[in-house]
Amino acid sequence: MVTLTTSEAADRVGLTVHAVRYYERAGLIPPVPRTAGGRRAFDDEALAWLEYTACLRALGMPVALIRRYVASVTSGSPTGAIDLVMQEHVEALRDRRAQLDRYIEMVERKVAARRSAGR
Amino acid sequence: MVTLTTSEAADRVGLTVHAVRYYERAGLIPPVPRTAGGRRAFDDEALAWLEYTACLRALGMPVALIRRYVASVTSGSPTGAIDLVMQEHVEALRDRRAQLDRYIEMVERKVAARRSAGR
DNA sequence: GTAGAACTTCGAGCGCGCTCGAAGTCAAGA
DNA sequence: TCTTGACTTCGAGCGCGCTCGAAGTTCTAC
Question: Cα–Cα distance between B59 and B108 in angstroms, integer?
Fold first, then answer.
């Protein structure tokens, strides 16, 4: 089994080592397997979690919500409540996308107007 | 000329009065016209600025950048540099939208997978 | 065996973007 | 005129999400 060190994993997902450690400490990813010497050894699963969490953060999902999600999944909680939360997040993302479309158009018009007005 | 008070303007664009005052103080909007008593009286132009700035903030444009933009426009600076910055921001928005699309799909797959796996 | 790099934990600090409270001023209604 | 309440400035405080430094440990190369 190939494993990665903290810095390798951080590079892989585009985070700093500090951020990666913070993610584990803050419960944004499940505990990462360790070597005999106590160092993190990211296996495929740990890396997948890290990637997924990095994605959720990039989407603007709050740390507290990701923490709840991770806790729910790792505890094997049978309630579907957290999935509902995720579903809602996806809905919110769609809204945000639509809003983004409108905003892009608005900013473009502004820029174009200023350009045609001779700066 | 119809003008709005701070709280009316704030309601209109979905900000708090504190945030509106902060925006002016921080140079995110040009100085707002005042009544004889020193109170803000938002005319159409001031309101348009407020709406636009609120939009830019919602898009994630940093306060410092908006400040530069506002300073550039209000000073009538002839350089097109700030427009370039805005153009770059629009490009960044497009990238972000594309990323958002990918992420939405990714999260959806995850949610669907957990659902079909019986929670 | 030892130097040095890379890792570890812990806790403090920081930048952003507001947010709020204090203390005072202004405006509209009774 | 007086009350009520929304407005004003100013500066401090705060929550989030890292970020960094200190002090110590472990791994790797020589």
Answer: 23
**CA A36, A38, A42, A47 torsion-angle sign:** positive
User: Reduced to 3 states, what is the DSSP secondary structure of residue B34?
Assistant: strand
In this prediction the pTM is 0.82
CB A1 within 8 A of CB A41: no
CB A74 within 8 A of CB A30: yes
Distance CA B119, CA B115 (A): 5
| Nearest one of A30, A91, A84, A70 to B115, comparing CA atoms | A84
Q: Convert the pLDDT of each residue in B45-69 to its tens digit.
A: 999 999 999 988 988 889 999 998 8
CA distance B20 to B28: 9
Residues with CB under 7 A from strand D: A 16, 18-19, 22, 35-39, 57, 62-64; B 5-8, 17, 21, 38-40
